[in-house]
Amino acid sequence: MHFCNVTRIEAESTKLFRLVASAGGFEAVARSALVVAAAELHGDLNIIHRFRDGNGRAQRILFEHLIINAGHQIDWWCF
Fold first, then answer.
1. What is the pTM of this model?
2. 2: which DSSP letter?
3. Does 53 map to a domain?
4. What residue numbers bound the domain in which 55 lies?
5. How far apart are CA 45 and CA 76, in angstroms?
6. 9-60: pLDDT as tens digits
7. Is the residue at 78 inside a domain?
8. 4 — alpha (psi -120 to 50), left (phi > 0) or beta?
């Protein structure tokens, strides 16, 4: 797995968070579209993060906020 070059972390993360902002934080997005957008964003954020471990908890909080704010529920432990 290749990760983002350290010189590109700020630019790439800014690009991703602008994308989320331009999508209105995914508010009023259909659940199926939200699942796809969240999966893509999750993968992109993982590539930006420089370390193999340590990003999961922060991402769960971020995605929980985005999903609930978009009007949907999430249960991390249902599987």
1. 0.79
2. -
3. yes
4. 6-69
5. 19
6. 999 999 999 999 998 888 888 889 999 999 999 888 888 876 666 677 888 8
7. no
8. beta
How is residue 73 written in tokens? 């529920």
Sign of CA dihedral 23, 30, 71, 59: negative
41 found inside a domain? yes
Token pair for 17: 């968070």
In-domain check, residue 21: yes
Q: Residue 34 corresponds to which tokens in the numbers above?
A: 């939200």
| DSSP per-residue string spanning 44-66 | HHHHHS-SSSS-HHHHHHHHHHH
| Total of domains in the chain | 1
Rounded to whole angstroms, how far apart are CA atoms 17 and 15?
Answer: 6
Asked if 71 and 26 touch (Cβ cutoff 8 Å), the reply is no
- Which residue did the predictor score with more confidence, 6 or 16? 16
- Cβ neighbours of residue 9 under 8 Å, at least 6 residues apart? 48, 50
